[in-house]
Amino acid sequence: MPDLSRRTFVRGSLAAGGGGLLAAALPGAAHAAELTVTDPAGTVTLAADTATGAIRVLDAGGTHRLTLTEFWYANAIRTRGASAVTKVSDTELHVEYVTQHADVSVRAVVVAGLRKARVRWEVAGPAAVPAQFLIGQSIVNGTVRYDPLALWNRDAGGGIPYETRHGACYAMTYADNRLLLRVRESTPAFGGGVTAVHAPGVAAPDGQGWVTEAVLVPGLMRVHSAGVIARDIVTPLGVDLWADQPFHVWPSGGAKTVNAQVVNADTVARQVRLSWTARTWDGAVQSGSAGPVTVSPRTVWNASFGVTLGARDIAFVEAVVTDGSATAFSRTNLAVLSSYTYRAGDASMFGLANYPWLLTGPGPDETAALMKLIGMKWVRTAYAGAPGIPPGDLDGHGLRHNVQLGDFDEGLPTDPQTWARDMVDLCVAAGARYYECGNELNLTAPDLSPGDYVAGALRPVRAALGDTPAFKVMTCGLAGLDSAWLDAFGTAGGWGEVDALAYHPGRGNFVADYSPPEPWVGPDGARKPEFWNFIGSLRKADAARAANGGKELWLTEAYASTQPNRWWTDTYRHAAENVLLQLMFARVHNVRGVTWYTLDDGIEQQPREANPDDIEYHFGLLVRDRSPKPSLLAFATAARLLDQATYVGRVTFSDPEVKGLLFDTFAVLWTRHDGYVLNAGHGAGAHYPHPEPWLDPWPAKTPVTLPAATSTVRELNCIGQETPHTAAGGRVSLTLDGAPRIFVGLDLTTTATYPV
Q1: Can you say whether residue 590 is alpha, beta or left, with left for phi > 0 and alpha for psi between -120 and 50 degrees?
Q2: Range from 306-310, 367-371, 652-656, 680-684 carrying the lowest mean pLDDT
């Protein structure tokens, strides 16, 4: 399958969204010209039309649910009926297809098993293109959504558990039943799952051609459970966790119900027991168990248990199912975040960079509500035809939106005036407040000079806008603060063509306040790891915009990646701490807007898939199952504190490793006695065992006594949990470490030096 870059991907014409297509009803009775196979228990039946080769899928009640209509073996080239249909046994039949190429053969091997059917297409011939294989389908009175299977793993090298992908699943829902179609892998936009499923082939075992396979599982069960049954590798047990609350985020604390579904994927019954554990931010434990229960072959057992949360809280929940020989486990998170009325309005600097779209679970209204709950006011790009919430709906939710388009990886437009007029028209029609012209050109288009970009893109846009521009223009979002690119941009007169500098403050395994010594770039122009720091690059960006007309500054892709067990990325706990500091520093440097890279883990081309080896899948504020990371609460904590807050200046201590930022309504204090480099003890490889998020990673504790303006000083950690401290004689004793904490009620100034 070809490599699919998130920056060069061209969307297909069929949407992969959750609504699906309501197909015309087809008759459920057997056709006269069909051959059928059924498993001995009668749980699934497949019927192949001897003329067309279409394969109908019927459930245990004999109801027709799906037709596999044809097979595409290359782009726009598909089978044209059947040359032969042969019933090999009561449970297996073969379909030989008519093809458009005499040198291409396509055969389907159809097998019915217990609550599980398998259709394997065997393809040979020089005109076949395995990366373009599609399975044609027609869903009968149902809807479809893309919902890939992921399973949890323990890391043999130590660290936190992580998910890996185990197949691409298309889940069909009917009024009275469900059906899952699983393929090895799929890019939803190549087929959409509505009338066709992208199912790239692999080399046949004998080296003659290619094969691809669909496994079908009917039954009223969770997608995860059906996916475990559908797996090619035998996995006897599986468990899925979820809560009946959008994003697992409640407005108040108390007892919350977690649902668990255990699946027995084996062909024999198994007696199982379920045990669960929930740990909160400080490591407090709640636990319990259920069972034993006998689960019949390829069926499920539903259970539930309660977890109690505080007023501002997060719980990390794990459930384990075992029968004494086989074991499976799953994880999810629960959180409490109370409602809040933000007052900044259009002056808010908080937003979302990637399309706010979810293929499963909460819908657009609930997604917009979550964005507003955590303080987001902006969406980086929204226009007619873009995925996500349409511009008009964003307006209805009170969310402001911009447009980011015009990636020039393959060169500038050949007719820049026409292109610019079209782009201006698109932005105006979308109601965009800003247009971000291109994306990371310093990284994706290194041969495109800043001068050519200014002349061939920015100036035409500015000319098309005229004397009364309908929106403001940003530079392309630079990948890191690229000083060489900006210098050439200024020499070409670029600053006069834009209203804002946009850049992406990438960050490696450094705390957000680390500004490493320069140079960050080698003699050959290659970026050193230190190039990817937050505060150092932000200071340079602030200085550059100030020296060139005082342009606005936007961080249009900010992030704190939680790729598991990698030394280059944040742990879940460090990510939350760095989210808080990054947003604080954005206010310190008068950043106009910070749009967080993604709301949820995953990428647009492979949504909801798990990939522990690709950092792109781990930038979200939500984990893959749409439950909250600690980063989500940290984002909300920062947004609420900074809502209309004013930065006053630095707080100075006698110990230079004690740090402080003073705002008019609070202070942020932390230390760097444990250093500025995270995961510093890593070995030669990429692996670093991340500690669990409820473990305190900062060994050095620093006591301080500071002046207090109130009798009680409120301490808030990065996720917003509050601890009161009683002052005596106008002073209060506190303990600081590497985690930034907010203090309300201190009497600090920017002129005094406080002893440590």
Answers
A1: left
A2: 680-684
C-alpha span between 715 and 28 (Å, rounded): 65
Q: Which sign, positive or negative, has the C-alpha torsion 322, 328, 333, 334?
A: negative
Three-class SS state of 532: coil
Q: Is the dihedral of CA 359, 362, 363, 367 positive or negative?
A: negative
User: H helices of 337-381, where?
Assistant: 364-373
pLDDT in tens, 145-157: 998 999 999 999 9
Angle, helices 483-491/535-546, rounded to nearest 10 degrees: 10
Contact (CB, 8 A) for 639 and 579:
no
Q: What is the largest CA-CA distance in the chain?
A: 94
Domains present along the chain, CATH in parentheses: 34-232 (2.70.98), 238-336 (2.60.40.10), 349-640 (3.20.20.80), 651-752 (2.60.40)
Q: Is 684 helix (H, G, I), strand (E, B) or coil?
A: coil
- Looking at residue 387, its pLDDT comes to 83
Query: In angstroms, rounded to a whole number, what is the distance separating the alpha carbons of residues 573 and 93?
Result: 54
Render pLDDT for 569-589 as a digit per residue (tens, 0 to 9).
999 999 999 999 999 999 999
Q: Which residue has the tokens 């610019």?
A: 420
Burial class (CB in 10 A: 0-12, 13-18, 19+), 48: buried
Q: Are 581 and 571 in contact (CB under 8 A)?
A: no
Position 407 scores a pLDDT of: 80
Chain CA centroid to CA 38, Å: 40
Residues 221 and 261 sit within 8 Å (Cβ to Cβ): yes
Q: What is the mean pLDDT of residues 348-366?
A: 81
What is the phi/psi pair of residue 199, to 5°? Answer: -145, 75
Report H helices in 205-337. Answer: 223-230
What is the secondary structure of 404-433 as a DSSP string? Answer: EE---TT---SSHHHHHHHHHHHHHHHT-S
Three-state SS at 645: coil
Closest C-alpha to 376, from 178, 622, 195, 131? 622
